[in-house]
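Good morning,

Both structures are done.
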Amino acid sequence: MAMKIRLARGGSKKRPFYSIVASDSRSPRDGRFVEKLGTYNPMLAKDSEDRVKMNMERVTYWLGQGAQPTDRVARFLEAANVIEKKVRANEKAGVPGKAAQERAKAKAAKAAAADEATAE
């Protein structure tokens, strides 16, 4: 059975609250899980100690059993120094899209034409 350590959403509309759970990877996000490992409340301030609470003994147990954390849970574990930090490189993050590049070219061409007209 492939195990995941992931978030299960709770809370009402526009007031999210997540449980950190160990579950079978085939079960639905908010469906059946094997064990509740902690909580995550994104509505609290980032420096609040109640924002993320985890039972570290059980988390390390499930990691030892081969459970794979999801991206968000992996970031929590990295912050708690349970797992090593991964190098994340998204080279396309700062690159504008195709339409924005075309607008920038058009704006540069228009500015060049205006500079040329004032130079004459």
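Second structure follows.
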Amino acid sequence: MITRITLDMLTETGVSVKTQKYIEDGGVEYAVGDPHRCAYINSERGRREIAAALPEPYLSAVMAVWGDRPMVEEAAGPGC
């Protein structure tokens, strides 16, 4: 099984991460199930959450756009 990660709408303030599983049969890939989406904002909490959830090189790509400090202040609330 192959897992593909897509970074959608990557900006300085946030990103939507789509994860989709695929199987390959005869050289053709087929999606398995529904994609999973999770949005992260460039806040202190969002940076911690995305660092725990996203593997390299995707994490480095996000951090390259986000820079070295949070751009959004947020109130406490549920994460992804």
